[in-house]
Amino acid sequence: MTRRLTTNDRVLGTGLMLILGGAAGNLTDRLLHGYVIDFVDVYYRAWHWPAFNVADSAITVGAVLLALDALGWGRKNRH
To answer: Which residues have CB under 8 Å from 56's CB, separation 6+?
Structure first.
């Protein structure tokens, strides 16, 4: 069964695009370099957040958007 997204499925579509784009970016790094390049490294005094890249951020935001869509956030009421 095939399902197409409608213009009302913007949150779902955006989430899927971010996840696929992030996965493609990480896959490209892995194929070209043999590892994923992490370049965002955040420090605050003695506290250190794990290093990450833009692709990881896109995957995370996309997953949050998919979860919000599953909860009904961003949908217009259909009567």
So the answer is: 22, 26, 38
* Catalytic residue from among 9, 38, 41, 69: 38
38 included as an active-site residue = yes
41 in active site = no
User: What is the rounded CA–CA span in Å between residue 38 and residue 26?
Assistant: 10
Single out the catalytic residue among 9, 41, 56, 69. Answer: 56
pLDDT tens-place string over residues 5-53: 887 888 999 999 999 999 999 999 999 999 998 888 888 999 998 888 9
